[in-house]
Amino acid sequence: MDLECSRDDLMYEQYRLDSRNTHDMNLIRNYFGEVQGLSEELAKQLWMVLQRAIVTVRRDPTMLVSVVRIIEREEKIDRRMLDRRRQTGFIPPGRPKAWKEHMFQVLEGTVCTRIEGTQSETRESDKMWLVRLLEITRKYVLDDLTVVKNLMVQCFPPHYGIFRIFFDLYHRALSARIQELAAEDLEANEIVSLLTWVLNTYTSIEMMGHPELAAECDINELEPLLPQDMVDELLHKYIQTISSNITGWLRKALETDKKDWKRDTEPDADQDGYYQTSLPAIVFQMFEQNLQVAAQINETFKEQVLHLCLKQMTSFLQRYREETVVYKDEHLKYRQLPQCYVQYMIAIINNCQTFKESVNSLKKKYSLTTEPTQNDAAIDRTLSEVAKDGCQFLLDEVFLDLEHHLSELLTRKWLGGCHAVDTICVTVEDYFNDFARIKKPYNTVNSSKKNSSPNMNKCKTHLADVFL
């Protein structure tokens, strides 16, 4: 640097004596020809130290202090040379060096490299690659900024505001990296992981809102990591994906339940002895999982997913009702099968009450409003229809069994000692024991329907003919 200053002073004096004497000026320039190379070599060493600033400040902070002092001295010389040029028109070769500006460019590149270098896994090698990447990134950024706050700020002049500079550098680098990730063909679970990290983790006390950092910078002043249009696009893609997935899951759950309807063993019962199948539990466990995931993002999105679940539920229950009718029709073709037809029809009826209770529980837990919706009315109406149909099918089953024996009453065969009444009593008692497994309020439906059943009316007509 002393050689450089000597060269610059000599060239300035020559310029003052005779600004047009390029020959003597070139003699001085050539004599100090290696000075420029030494300056460039020094700059390379400075940039190498700055590229490893986070590591260097931990091991040897005095080296970083020396680098900053050199850059500060060169900045002062730059300012002096620029002032001289304004006054005299002369400026030595290589000035201004603008090493301070270049220092920040090096630091920016270092931060970008640090962020980009956190990814070590891909989807092909690890399904949790994005979760791991985001967690590693969170840890690195928090650790680095803590080092900057506690160690690096002491190596720079206060007017640099070095912590705020690093804070902004990391934010910009993260924003660029997150936007790259958002542009990839992310799967549904990856979209949730990314948005949860962006919208919640990033500004939480686990990262940029950490108490050690919050005292220096206001996270509310930061620009969003992702533009709102990109957030909306990811949310829309997620909704489309889970809508398709839920449709498939519901279809599969119903198919599995239908297979159970044909079993030769009775359905399971709850703690009170009411028949039931696992369908409501499976359906609402699936809804619950999706809502828990959505809640990680924000309340508004959780409400959207709840609306989607209830809308899917409406369509699903229509299929449930249709399959119940098919189940009944197939049974009537050969009434000996399935062996547990009555018990599973009771379970189907009971499931309606479980579905209603589960819908109410889900809304109470996840909805921001208690106002009823069109989906609520459609769900309630369809469940009532399924239960009503099921009860009617059960009554039809009873009277189909009794029809032959009722026709024997008050006939010569009956007077001759047939056992029609005994058979009727046993049959009714048997069905009564099964119907006791129907939940409220549906266990009262059968009673109210007995008088309106077509088969019962037929039996009444037959008895009236006999007595008349």
UniProtKB/TrEMBL annotation:
Record GO cellular component, one term: exocyst
BP GO annotations: exocyst localization; exocytosis
UniProt xrefs under InterPro entries: EXOC3/Sec6
Pfam families: Sec6
UniProt-recorded Gene Ontology molecular function terms: SNARE binding
Protein name (Swiss-Prot/TrEMBL): Exocyst complex component 3
Species of provenance: Scleropages formosus
Gene giving rise to this polypeptide: EXOC3
